[in-house]
Amino acid sequence: MTTRREVIVALALGVGALCAALPSRAQQAGRVWRIGFLASGARPASLASGTLAEFSRGMRELGYIEGRHFVIEWRFAEGKTERFAELAAQLVESKVDVMVAATTNGVSAAKRATSTIPVVMVTVANPIGTGLIASFARPGGNITGLSNVSFDVSIKYLELLRVAIPRLARVAVLINPGGVTRRGFFERIEGAAKTAGVKVSPLEAQTAAEIDAAFGAIARERIGALILTPDPFFSVQAPRIAALAVKNRLPTMFWTREHVATGGLMSYGQDNADHYRRAATFVDKILKGARPGDLPVEQPMKLQLVINRRTAKALGLALPQELLLRTDEVIE
Known about the structure:
CATH architecture of the largest domain: 3-Layer(aba) Sandwich
Strand order of the largest sheet: 7-6-8-9-10-11-12
């Protein structure tokens, strides 16, 4: 005999399955949503692959078809901090329904440009300390999204370099003087260096010529390793920085895997590709009516240490087994 409880459960399951099968409200309405994307780097040769493509992939996984349910208005700052304000203003003027903005500088520009268009942040360090949100649980205002933990784990950069280079005595930290979080990053690394008895030298660069000058200073001062602080300009220049570092036999520590794949020695931090894919879930919720200020900001659940073995060989660096055992990925 079928009980009344069993009937109710069956009906509930049936309704749940029906709701799961129905397209989202965004798709039902037949509206084509306009998503503004404020990217920090240069426009890639293809938007069908790579880290940025993960956002579109995330939208597809949620049932959105690009061109039918949404279009993306792309803007690329090309690593130039001063361009963010202009590009954010362009997206506001084009009346996008929601904006996705990368890096602290990009989200800061979006916040100054609009207080009404929802903004989903990606790869942003220290969003509370920089005044972008009120808290992780209830960010408030028109901003939510994903924060990285590069600011919090920056003290690990030096620790991992010392494992790779046991006699490391002098380290340079490359800083973009136009970066919002530049001072905080250096202070944290400098504090860790004092404890470890390592001398740290800050070097500033915001042009290609200044990067060349920084490497000249590194050679003169006999620096043993280079730490790159997270910055859009350094992301654009990462392949060039990595090549110069190999030429000068200088081990490098970056903040994300992408730059190790292009020749850097090591990185420690979150998977940026996963962040861009996860950003789609925030856009989906906002398009369905959620208020960004009520959506808790996500932080990465996993950090990864990535090493480029080819670069290590080019540097003549024998990687200690202790370090390799802690590594999540070795790029051959």
